[in-house]
Amino acid sequence: MECNDPKCSIHGDVKVRGIQLEGLVASDKAKKTVVVEVDYTKYVYKYERYLRKRSRIPAHNPDCINAKKGNIVRIAETRRLSKTKSFVVTGVVKK
Ligand SMILES: [Zn+2]
Question: What confidence tens digit (pLDDT) does each residue in 66-79 have?
């Protein structure tokens, strides 16, 4: 598939920098955008235990990757692509 997306990390002009994360695609409703749920743990000193947390990160989903709901994807931080997006999907780990 040909990719003419300027916001694609492989064929476009966005450079990835900063953090990389892996998460589950929770929503693919928006055009060229997926919402990725990332689970992480945070240590709480008061109770000396880990707290399970989850964050939802909107990420750009270029045509050449085309991640679908339920996929495990790798996302990488990039420049701000829109009002809410500053991450781009760099690959599907598991379909
Ligand atoms: Zn592409």
Answer: 999 999 999 999 99
Question: Quick one: how far is CA 46 from the chain centroid?
Answer: 32
Ligand 1 center–CA 62 separation, angstroms: 6
Task: Set out the domains of the chain in order of their start, with CATH numbers.
Answer: 20-94 (2.40.50.1000)
Tell whether pTM > 0.85.
yes
Query: How close is the Cα of 11 to the center of ligand 1, in Å?
Result: 4
Distance from the alpha carbon of residue 54 to the mean position of ligand 1, in angstroms: 28
Answer whether 56's CB lies under 8 Å from 37's CB. Answer: yes
46-70 per-position pLDDT tens digit? 999 999 999 999 999 999 999 999 9
